[in-house]
């Protein structure tokens, strides 16, 4: 959906979806185009006025508010010094690679912008990216774009054939602007498996930065970008087998980038016979895998992940992004 964020008064509630990157994580940080699914797992932020003259709170705790970098970054530019009382509920595990911080940031920004008189969706996308990037110090607008726009998206310095342009976002570090496009959702059920090993995006992104300085680094990034182009074609054609093949190829390249982890390998091995394709999703080094099951084998993939000690989620694409709730 592409509707605006309406004006509202406190108390209000906003919700935004998490995400799984289907193709192109890490390469997107170097300007290649990634493909991301917004997931039907989300974060809800309830915002009320805080005690006059007091501090903002997160689930009743001022300390939790103080130590949340995303919240601090958002409050710096958008609370006009007023204390806010936030209550947050999420069904996205933290540090799982499934976009919990972007969903929190986008829901929070949707709430704060509506308190300030409302916003276009493109502005919400820009403010959410700026806030997440300010808190993390590294990274692309992939996660916040999924949280704001919903659906299946391409995000990179260039659009991709077959994607409809949604908006562009200015770079926050002086580089070229980002372009966000939409690809039709083929309507499948995906299975995501969390290893239980929290990942640290900034550390893994920096490590990949070192890896791509090696002589074959640019070629590796270009190969990942090429898989994303093929992946979009396959999604548009609703060709499950071809999407699965592209996922497997992307996984091979991610291993070469050095972002795998023994627990990720175990989960991927456990689902190999039921999935058309599966790969690490997000930063890696822990976090989660995403799988496209053979049709009708969704539950078998979920069960295999569970038997291998992971946490499975059977999920469809969330068609809409961040929105106020009634
Ligand atoms: C994190 O979800 C995806 C990465 O590509 C980092 C980024 O794009 O910000 C690893």
Structural commentary:
- With about 325 residues, the protein is α+β, with helices and mostly antiparallel strands.
- It folds into two domains: about 5-185, Ribosomal Protein S5, domain 2; about 190-315, Alpha-Beta Plaits (2-Layer Sandwich), CATH 3.30.70.
- The chain is about 40% helix and about 25% strand.
- Strands 1, 2, 3, 4, 5, 6, 7 and 12 form an eight-stranded mixed beta sheet that branches. It has a four-stranded antiparallel beta sheet with strand order 9-10-8-11.
- α3 crosses α5 (about 140-150), α4 packs antiparallel against α5 (about 140-150) and α7 packs antiparallel against α8.
- The model has no long low-confidence stretch (mean pLDDT about 95).
- It binds (R)-mevalonate (MEV).
- (R)-mevalonate (MEV) binds near residues 28, 29, 139, 140 and 283.
- (R)-mevalonate binds near residues 26, 139, 140 and 205.
Quickly give the structural class. alpha+beta
* Helix and strand element order: EEEHHEHHHEEEEHHHHEEHEE
Estimate the helix proportion, in percent. Answer: 25-40%
Low-confidence stretches: none
Overall shape: globular
Give the rounded overall mean pLDDT: 96
Biggest pleated-sheet summary: 8 strands, mixed
**Beta-strand content:** 15-25%
The first-to-last residue Cα distance is: 17 Å
At the first level of CATH, the class of the largest domain is Alpha Beta
CATH topology of the largest domain, by name, is Ribosomal Protein S5, domain 2
Task: Please state the CA-atom Rg, rounded to the nearest Å.
Answer: 19 Å
Total number of beta strands:
12
């Amino acid at each position: 959906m592409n509707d605006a964020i309406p004006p509202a008064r406190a108390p209000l509630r906003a919700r935004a979806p998490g995400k799984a990157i289907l193709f192109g994580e890490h390469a997107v940080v170097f300007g290649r185009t990634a493909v991301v699914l917004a997931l039907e797992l989300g974060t809800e932020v309830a915002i009320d006025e805080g005690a006059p003259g007091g501090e903002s709170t997160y689930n009743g705790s001022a300390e939790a508010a103080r130590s949340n970098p995303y919240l601090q970054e958002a409050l710096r530019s958008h609370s006009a010094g007023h204390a806010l009382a936030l209550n947050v509920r999420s069904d996205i595990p933290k540090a799982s690679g499934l976009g919990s911080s972007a969903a929190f940031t986008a829901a929070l920004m949707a709430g704060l912008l509506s308190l300030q008189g409302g916003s276009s969706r493109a502005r919400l996308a820009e403010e959410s990216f700026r806030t997440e990037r300010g808190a993390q110090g590294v990274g692309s607008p992939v996660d916040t774009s999924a949280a704001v726009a919903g659906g299946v998206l391409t995000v990179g310095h260039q659009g991709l054939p077959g994607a409809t342009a949604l908006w562009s976002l200015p770079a926050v570090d002086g580089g070229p602007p980002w372009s966000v496009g939409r690809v039709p959702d083929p309507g499948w059920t995906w299975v995501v498996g969390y290893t239980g090993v929290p990942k640290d995006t900034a550390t893994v992104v920096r490590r990949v930065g070192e890896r791509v300085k090696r002589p074959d680094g640019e070629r590796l990034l270009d190969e990942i970008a090429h898989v994303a182009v093929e992946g979009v074609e396959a999604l548009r054609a609703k060709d499950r087998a071809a999407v699965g093949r592209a996922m497997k190829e992307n996984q091979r390249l991610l291993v070469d980038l050095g972002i795998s982890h023994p627990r990720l390998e175990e989960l991927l091995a456990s689902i190999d016979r039921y999935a058309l394709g599966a790969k690490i999703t997000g930063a890696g080094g822990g976090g989660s895998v995403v799988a496209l099951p053979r049709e009708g084998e969704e539950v078998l993939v979920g069960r295999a992940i569970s038997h291998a000690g992971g946490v499975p989620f059977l999920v469809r694409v969330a068609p809409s992004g961040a929105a106020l709730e009634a």
